[in-house]
Amino acid sequence: MLTTAAQVERLRTAKDLRTSASDTSQRMLNALQPGTIVPIHRHRQSSETVLCLKGCIEEILYEERLEHGRKELKEVRRIRLTAAGETVGCQVPQGVWHTVNVLQPTVIFEAKDGPYAPADSQDIWSLS
User: Fold this and answer.
1) Residue 39 half-sphere exposure, CB side, CA atoms within 13 Å?
2) Up-side HSE of residue 123: CA atoms within 13 Å toward CB?
3) What digits encode the pLDDT tens for the residues 59-118?
4) Number of helical (H) and strand (E) elements in the chain, helices listed first
5) Are 128 and 70 contacting, i.e. CB atoms less than 8 angstroms apart?
6) Which residues pair with 41 in a beta bridge?
7) pTM (2 d.p.)
8) pLDDT in tens, 7-60
């Protein structure tokens, strides 16, 4: 998977681990290369479990605030996940804005509650 991720423009690839399209869970492997851009996003309907199987990433969590009449995000926590390290996984709470910073070629396992639903535009942070 990491070889494939290194060869595609997005520098990441995913493998769906659901047993069928009607499976009511979300489980996947994500291979990520340094330099990939994962937009800041949230999952309003589910928390997200992230386990680092290989490599090292930082899971970055944000809080939405109103500053000078405008919505802004403030970074509130960075969690370094390392396959061979002290912290191999974390739980991103439901509705929390987050992204990842990929420090090494990395493979993570992700799980979310409920059936797959494409991200809504309200769930991708826009810098504009």
Assistant:
1) 12
2) 12
3) 999 999 998 999 999 999 999 999 989 999 999 999 999 999 999 999 999 999 887 777
4) 1, 8
5) no
6) 98, 124
7) 0.93
8) 999 999 999 999 887 888 899 999 999 999 999 999 999 999 999 999 999 999
The two most distant CA atoms of the chain are separated, in Å, by: 48
SS3 content of the chain, % helix, strand, coil (to 5): 5, 50, 45
Task: Report the C-alpha gap between 124 and 91 in whole angstroms.
Answer: 19
Asked if 91 and 59 touch (Cβ cutoff 8 Å), the reply is no
Domains in the chain, please, with CATH? 2-113 (2.60.120.10)
Q: Any residues with CB less than 8 A from the CB of 74 and at least 6 apart, and which?
A: 62, 63, 65
